[in-house]
Amino acid sequence: MKFVCFVLLAVGLFACSPEESGRREAYFLSVSDSLWLDRSSLTERLGGDDMPDALLQFLPERQVRTDAIRYRSEDPQGNAVTASGIVVYPADGMFKGVVVGQHYSIGADRESPSARMAVVESLLALFGYVVIAPDFIGFGATADLPQTYIHAESTGRVTADMVFAAREYMAGKGMPVEEEMYVVGYSQGGYSALAFAKTAEEQYPDDMPLRHVFAGGGPYVPESMFNLFIEKDVLENPSTVLLAITGFDYADGLNLDYVKVFQEPLLSQYEDCVFGKKHTLSEMERLLGTDRLSDILHPDLFLPERNSEFNKIYRSLAANNLTGWTPETPVLLVHGTGDGTVPFVNAQTAYNSFKARGCTVRLIPVPGGDHRETGIAFFLTVLQQLT
After folding, report:
1. pTM for the complete prediction?
2. Are 97 and 128 in contact (CB under 8 A)?
C-alpha cells in the first residue's frame, strides 16, 4: 500500500503541469445563454428562407442544444481576455464526433455565433456532432476590440482556447467529448480552419489530434490575392480589404498612418464602419458607395514603390500566408474557379504547396462557381464526408 501511494505521489510530482504543456489551469468561465433548437428553429437562425433547398433536404429532424460560453484566452499582444463562442450538441447526448466550426466573414457583432446562437457548421449537430464555434477576437465578449481578420496566430490561439474550454464545460456536465476533431470552415472560415490546424499540430500535437480539415473558399495566400485585387481594381467585396488592413494594424501592431492608406470619404468613416460592429459587410459596401479599390485606398498603393504604410501591410500579408507549413492532417480544399471574392489562385497555391511537401491534400474545383454557389457545394461535400 505504501508503495502504491509513493508511485501515485511520484506521478503527481513529475507530471507536466498545464502551464508546462502550454495549457492553463482552467479555460471555461461561464455560460451566457442557452437554447433548445430543432431543425426548423436552427435553420431559421441561419437565414430561414434563404437556406438552399439542396441543403435543407439533407437535414434530419433532431433537437440540439446551443450553449454560449465565455472562456479565458489572449489578445494578439498576449494580454488576458475573456473570449466567447458556442457549443452546439445533440440533446439526446448521443455524440458521433467533434467538429470545430469556423465562421465566415462578418462585420456586425449581431452576426457572431454567440449572438445568433448558431453558425452554419452547427447544422452538423443535427447529425450527431458536437460543434465548437469561437466568435474570434473582435466579436461577442471581445466586441470592444478590433477584429483580427485573417490573422493566423490570433485565430489559432483563440480557437484552441475555445476547444479546451468546451471540453471542460462538457465534462462538467457529465457529457465528455472525444479529443479527436474535424475542422470545418468556408471563406474566412476556410482560412481559420487551416490556421487552427496549424496551431493544433505545432503547439498541441498531443492534446488536439485532428482527423480531417475541410476548408473552402479561403484566402490562404493573402499577398497574392491582394495583388490580384490591385490588378483588377473592381472587387466583389471591398469591405474585406478594410477588415484585413485594420485587423493587421491591430494584431501586428503596425501603427498605421491612415492618411497614407485610405482616401476620403473612407478616411473619415472607417472607424465607425469597421470598429463600430454595427454594419454587415453588405452594409459596409453600401456606405463605401464604390467597388473600386482605387476609390478607397491611397494612390501610392498603385505606384511601383509603395509608401511606408503599404509596405507594413504587405509584410503582414506575407506573414499570414498559410502555405508555408506541412499539415500532417488530411486536408480537403473546395473552391470555385469563378470566385471573384476570394480568387481560385488561393486554393491552387495551397494545394500545390501542400502536395509538394508530401501532405495528404485534395482540391475539388467547382467549375465556374462563384463564392456563394461554391459555399453550398462545399457544405454538401462536408455532409457527404461526415454523415
Report:
1. 0.92
2. yes
